[in-house]
Write a structure and sequence with these properties.
- This protein has 199 residues and is an all-alpha fold.
- It has one domain.
- 72% of the residues lie in helices and 0% in strands.
- It is built from 10 helices and no strands.
- It has helices spanning 17-39, 42-55, 58-66, 68-73, 78-89, 91-117, 129-136, 141-150, 157-164, 171-197.
- Helix 2 runs antiparallel to helix 3 (58-66), helix 2 (42-55) packs parallel to helix 5 and helix 6 packs across helix 9.
- It is elongated.
């Protein structure tokens, strides 16, 4: 798919005023949408669904896993889902669902970011710090940069997902690095949820 490739603009030539306007307009609309979602406090709804999810067994766990994609796209903290999964199903089952769920959600947001930018090199243009970092993601160091940015348990996960889409990093590199880098914090939240559930 074009937005997963490393190179060509989807519609407008890189650096044209139209491309920049489309990106910033899309970013503003996304910010407004995410703000509206957050005002609804979706993380407060999840605990109320806990009993239904638990009663559904493995089907409920699977449904919980599917929620990672819309959660990532609407900036709902994925840690809430992982904590809930650990609380309801234990650390092992929760981790087996949460790690690929986090990765899938991050990849979906990456795709949206790339579509909004229209050009994978959008953030790599210029000479500022952000541009230099974006260009560095094209190199072999890009893989480890993504891994390191995923390790902290508290990070702007949602913002990074969209931002990476506007950099020249390859989708396959981003996906694998996200998968590996998300494991420690995700497993940690699953264990924390399981510990609370066992009390």
């Amino acid at each position: 798919m074009p937005f997963l490739s490393g190179g060509r603009s989807l519609a407008l030539a890189p650096g044209t005023p139209g491309a920049r306007t489309r990106f910033w307009r899309g970013l503003l609309l996304l910010a407004l949408f995410l703000t509206a979602v957050q005002l609804l406090h979706p993380q407060d709804v999840l605990p109320g669904m806990a009993e239904r999810v638990r009663d559904a067994g493995w089907v409920g766990l699977g449904v919980l896993g599917l929620l990672y994609v819309p959660a990532a796209l609407t900036a709902v903290p994925l840690a809430v889902l992982t904590f809930t999964a650990g609380w309801l199903f234990g650390p092992v089952a929760a981790s087996l669902v949460a790690v690929p769920g986090c990765t899938a959600g991050a990849c979906a947001a990456f795709g949206v970011g790339r579509l909004m930018a229209g050009d994978p090199r959008f953030l790599a243009r210029g000479e500022g710090r952000v541009a230099r970092l974006a260009r560095a993601l094209e190199t072999r160091r890009g893989f480890w940069a993504v891994v390191l940015l995923r390790l902290p348990p508290v990070s702007p996960f949602a913002v990074l997902n969209f931002a990476f889409g506007a950099t020249p990093i390859r989708f396959s590199t981003y996906a694998l690095a996200t998968l590996l880098g998300s494991i420690p914090a995700t497993v940690g939240f699953a264990i924390a949820g399981a510990m609370l559930g066992s009390r």
